[in-house]
Write a structure and sequence with these properties.
single chain, about 325 residues, alpha/beta, 3-stranded parallel β-sheet, 12 strands, about 35% helix, elongated
Length: about 325
């Protein structure tokens, strides 16, 4: 099977420098292997997703030269397929209805108390203590038919572990006992992120998932869903994070336009040069060289060249001559 990768941003803001690098690494890997580079807009966060953000992402990708090889997929269009997958797992006994009443909103102090209690429970918490987990199917069906609201949860096995060989971070394992019975559908029928991502990656025939290191935890949960659906998970490669100069996480909210692709386009930066700069944030060809054409990057790129340590984006707040990273300038 030929390589198929995807870049899957959420349209909740402009194209962030970290997201642009993820797109670049996916694009380079697809071109290096003769595969396909796909784009999926994960617009299921209806409260925060905007057309303006989608436009900004598409403009940023266009400027950088990362045109998808197939039609863009909008995740919100697949919600019925996500629900169908959850109901399939329910029918097969791999998931169950959770009739736990939805909690009323609580203020910040109460939320913190709940979190503190959960932390205190720590490893002693039983992830399989949901009272509806083993409810007889006939009773579950009757309650649902009676109009009682319910979420659908994946029934995670009592013992065993998820395991995958990450192409950057190596062998990753987690005991089932450390993972809760995942919510697949909320009581309002809204599919949750992990289910939607797995279903879409299956439908798009994605072979390699190249994304940020902050998704490592999600990967264990997604593997459980792949296995429940009887599908083989793709190859995973998680990228080191890009940090701010103070070693804190680079963010749209904290750092503003300095991390936006359109900022550099509008300031007259050369797209080819900025691609070169992005490529060297967390990857190297193991040689003493810093200037590459796009064709050279494509030829030399490999997952093995991705670093495990986080990259640092060295901008200088308050200095108009060094307002962004010196290498970018």
């Amino acid at each position: 099977m030929s390589v198929r990768v995807r870049f899957a941003p959420s349209p909740t803001g402009y194209l962030h420098i970290g997201s642009a690098r993820t797109a670049l690494f996916n694009f380079l890997y697809a071109r290096h292997t003769g595969g396909k580079f796909l784009l999926r807009i994960e617009d299921t966060d209806l409260a925060r997703s905007t057309e303006e953000s989608t436009r900004s992402i598409l403009e940023g990708l266009k400027w950088l030269g990362f045109a998808p090889d197939e039609e863009i997929v909008f995740q919100s269009n697949n919600a019925e397929k996500h629900r169908a997958a959850a109901n399939q797992l329910l029918a097969e006994g791999k998931a169950y209805r959770d009739f736990t009443p939805k909690e009323a909103p609580v203020d910040g102090s109460v939320k913190e108390a709940i979190k503190e209690r959960a932390r205190a429970q720590g490893a002693d918490k039983n992830m399989r203590d949901n009272p509806y987990r083993d409810l007889p199917a006939s009773e579950s069906d009757a309650r649902a038919a009676g109009g009682e609201a319910f979420a659908i949860r994946l029934k995670v096995a009592e013992s065993g572990k998820t395991s995958f060989d990450d192409k950057v971070y190596g062998l990753q394992e987690r005991e089932y006992s450390e993972t809760e019975d995942l919510v697949l559908l909320r009581s309002d029928g809204h599919p949750l992120y992990n289910l939607a991502v797995v279903c879409d990656d299956i439908e798009m025939e994605i072979t390699h998932v190249i994304r940020g290191q902050d998704h490592l935890t999600n990967t264990h949960k997604q593997i459980l869903i792949y296995e429940a659906l009887g599908r083989t998970p793709p190859v995973f490669a998680h990228l080191p994070l890009i940090m701010a100069p103070n070693k804190g996480k680079l963010s749209k909210r904290k750092h503003g336009e300095v991390v936006s692709m359109t900022t550099y386009r509008d300031a007259g930066f050369i797209a080819a040069a900025f691609r070169n700069f992005l490529a060297l944030l967390g990857w190297s060809a193991s040689e003493e060289r810093e200037i590459y054409s796009l064709n050279e990057l494509i030829r030399k790129f490999s997952l093995e060249g991705i670093h495990r340590s986080n990259a640092v984006f060295n901008f200088h707040e308050g200095d108009p001559k060094r307002w962004t990273d010196d290498k970018a300038l």
